[in-house]
Design a protein that fits this description.
260 residues; alpha/beta; Rossmann fold; OB fold (Dihydrolipoamide Acetyltransferase, E2P); five-stranded parallel β-sheet; five-stranded antiparallel β-sheet; 32% helix; elongated
Length: 260
């Protein structure tokens, strides 16, 4: 469990850190003294639980949650920590989260963390179930043979051998490792037919076979490039960058793999 403490009171931060340090299920925790610092950390790293003070000088805890939603940033399980019960109840009703009243005990924080951890695990399981169809598409062991018409002949090629497809005017260029074929067809029709076999659209005029992708390269512009087996790179435009997410669903390591 990864936890972020957001509280502008040093004593409260220390007390919460002591509770987290004593728990064997806390893999890592960070602290932020205000919501600006918290937003920076949440934009660059991932957390399972947010221990969030409601009353702070810059933005309130509830305003921070609203900002996360507006920016479409990942929303951890939230435990509001506050000295005023009316604020805690209002936050609970608005955001359907947990709360602990100050001065808090180690036991009350521990119980809230237990509930938040169970909620986070449930949400992770739901995401895994949601992502399962994508994994199945990307890991299909059997590929059908596809008939194409090239130079007056009808050829049969294995769909799994196609590395990428790029639009060329009214044609598409079907690229394999050893050769390529120029076919009269629209990129949208080809994308629809190949999508069930692990092909992802990365550009309005390009799609790539996910099984050939060896590296995702972030660019300073916020865009990405894909390097496929053999070393060739393909640009990923902003409109299609979310299509890369299934490639990183099964991962090892913490932190955000793809920027939002």
């Amino acid at each position: 469990m990864r936890v972020l403490i957001v509280d502008d009171e040093p004593l409260a931060q220390t007390a919460l850190a002591n509770v987290l340090s004593a728990r064997s299920d806390v893999e890592h925790f960070d602290s932020a003294s205000d919501t600006i610092e918290a937003l920076e950390k949440l934009a660059t790293d991932s957390y399972d639980v947010l221990l969030l003070d409601i009353n702070m000088l810059d933005l309130s805890g509830t305003e921070l949650v609203d900002q996360l939603r507006e920016r479409d940033l990942p929303l951890p399980s939230i435990v509001f920590v506050t000295a005023q019960v009316e604020h805690a109840i209002a936050a609970f009703e608005k955001h359907t989260v947990d709360y602990v009243l100050k001065p808090f005990s180690n036991e009350s924080i521990g119980e809230a963390l237990d509930r938040a951890s169970r909620r986070a695990k449930g949400e992770q399981a739901a995401k895994l179930i949601e992502a399962l169809p994508h994994w199945q598409k990307l890991s299909r062991p059997q590929y059908p043979r596809m008939a194409i018409k090239a130079k007056g002949r009808i050829l049969f090629i294995n769909v799994g051998d196609v590395v990428a497809v790029q639009a060329e005017g009214n044609y598409v260029l079907l690229q394999r490792e050893s050769d390529s074929y120029l076919l009269r067809e629209s990129i949208s029709v080809v994308a629809e037919k190949l999508e069930p076999y692990g092909f992802i659209r990365i550009h309005r005029s390009a799609l790539v076979n996910a099984s050939f992708v060896e590296e995702i390269k972030p660019r300073a512009t916020g865009k990405y490039a894909l390097r496929v087996k053999g070393g060739k790179e393909y640009a990923v435009t902003r409109a299609y960058k979310n299509n890369l997410k299934p490639l990183t669903e099964f991962r090892i390591g913490s932190g955000a793999f793809l920027a939002e």
